[in-house]
Amino acid sequence: MNRFRLAVLAAALATALPLFALQDKEAPKQEKPKESRTAYLRRIFEKDRASYGDACRAVLSVIKNDHSDADHAAIVGDLGGRGVVNADWGLQESSLLTKGTLAYMVCQALEIKGGVTMRLFGINRRYALRECLHRRLIASGTTDEYVTGRELIDVITNATIHKEQGHTDSQYK
Q: What is the pTM of this model?
């Protein structure tokens, strides 16, 4: 009986060894499929809180009129070179987005100069939000209020209309 068990065990090991050998080998890495603009917008729309990375990608798409799948560092570098984001912020990609930060980015991207106060003292998040509220790019809120995914999509839509027409009054709103 012991020989029979030993033979069965040997047969089982002989058939299992190739399976263990296959598990040690790494599977070839597949490239991450490129996310379409529609899928990206749907994913953002369904978020309870938008992130700084979402805003950077969305604002860059308004500037370039093209969706980019580049990594966050490349996007922030591009926006930083254009003066849209400030390197002193120290925000991470996953940081929650505030309305003040979004307003600053939108004003810089659309090259909105603002009123007398903004021209005298320079742009900051507070004055940028006031200007965006005045131009109806952002519906309402305070500087430190968090942005939902739907609000981000609304702001980006308004910014695109403003870029094309010079104002946000549109028959498509």
A: 0.74
